[in-house]
Amino acid sequence: MTVKKQLLHFAAVTARTLHLWPAINRTGVFNRARRRKYPDTLVHLDVVITECCSLKCRDCSNLMQYYKSPENLDPQEIIESLKSLFCVVRVHELKLIGGEALVSQKALAEILVYLRDEARGSYDEIRIITNGTIMPGDALVKVMKETPGLTVVFSNYGKLSVRKDEFSELCRTQGIDFILNPEDEYWWDYGRPVKYNATDRQTQGKYAGCYARRLCTSLYRGRLYVCPRQAHGIRLGMMPEAEGEYVDLLDTSLSGDKLREAVLGLTDRKDFISACRYCIDGKLVKIPKAVQISGPLDHEQ
After folding, report:
1. 295 belongs to a structural domain
2. Domains of the chain: total
3. Is the pLDDT of residue 31 over 60?
4. Shortest CA distance to 275 belongs to which of 187, 207, 199?
5. pTM of the prediction?
6. Domain that holds residue 195
């Protein structure tokens, strides 16, 4: 890791340790600074490659706990979506996520090969987000080593992340950059995905200070969404699918300036989205981290 990356990581860890992120998010200063530095660029993009996860966290903010039949996504559809996106904007930090990204290693390797060979100038960094429960196979390790700008980021869930030490040591010996995040003391509660009784003003306040809106723009099943909770909430039938609150990257009627305007308009959107009414972000309720459950939840219970 470069000195600059080390300093930025230290600053992020310090803010996290001192519980400063909620206050920083709500000022909007971080987002405005990044937009000035990276005009016409998506600062962060989460690319969902699977709904499957090796853990069963009761309070997953991305709603994985509600999937009764999770699926690995089609890597070719993901690649076609990225091609469409890269025609109109660059991405600073592209994150490959799940579920657990290592569940779908063949798709992960296929997407990395595309990013390495065909899209190198379209992004600055790639991050594979893993919970440290699954080891990569030899084929995936080879592709990871050959992909410029790649970093493995370990979400540290303590004893649940049973392979994190082995996986991080593999990264060290193979020359693959990695970040081992400090173990979470707690999680923030986003609430069950049901409609809450909040005024428009309260809902707008949630949206304006939302961590996900600034850092978690999501590519999921060919669509670009403001946040992953919105994406999965719509997929699960828990939240409304409202026109203008996502961009269909596989829509052939959208291209060129029209697509670029739609993408940047979505990521710079000032008004809250319908999914914000199904979230309690902003109440700053702390809950125990990574509590495991035996099976999928019913969101109405």
Report:
1. no
2. 1
3. no
4. 207
5. 0.89
6. 3-287
